[in-house]
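Input.
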Amino acid sequence: MSKKTKSNDAAMAMDSGMEISKKTSTILSVVLAILAVLFLIPILLVLMNSFKGKLYISDAPFTFPTAKTFAGIGNFIEGVTKTGFLSAFGYSLFITVASVAAIVLFTSMTAWWITRVKGKFTNALYYLFVFAMIVPFQMVMFPMVKIANMLYLDNPVGIVLIYLGFGAGLSVFMFCGFVKSIPVSLEEAAMIDGCNPIQIFFQIIWPILKPTAITVAILNAMWVWNDYLLPYLVLGTEYKTIPIAVQYLQGGYGSIDMGAMMAVLVLAVIPIIVFYMSCQKYIIKGVAAGAVKG
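Output.
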């Protein structure tokens, strides 16, 4: 076979491969677009129905508001008034910010120590954190509530410690994967210059951990902000977060003020969507760094 024939065959194979790659890319794009639409439909339905009168939501939940069904901002005013939304928003904001800050700070320090200090104890500790990721919350919720009551953790400050415990597993796992990629020589050079371990962490390690730290913050913020079961079990009705406050729109005999509920749900998701959209570019970067490197 001549060289010219071989080159032609290679060119044809390359063109065929590129054509298959384009078809695969097109199919994948169509599938992802369909999935995106399916995920956005519930949000669109909630947004549409938040501006309808409550008597029309059940009759025509999939139609846009009309002049007859449009309720303006009446649903929002009624929802905020009935649920005590401002108070619930304050509790949710405090618990989310404090929990996420504690999780990011303490788990990053723990991951750095586990990664750098080699030994049987640190290995066992690492696998305990990994094991904590697969333990379902329902398995431990009843003893956890009892212990929380005994230790007086059934308040907005105490629940931050509980969230720290439940969020530590995944966070430590992600931070450990990234810390392994940081050259030890940087820390050794800082130590020679007279830095102590605290200075090494906050001046050398912490700036490098920024992508993973933001990713951990986003994932935990979405979890804590939207969590219903843990605040309901630990805080009860004395300190209502937004997910707990929403259920108070349900009246007697199962009746629900759907208009006010839809309006409150819109108000509840806006902060977390804004936070997610402003930081989403760090998610893939942080996850890939924590999972692949090292």
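The first helix runs from residue 3 to 49.
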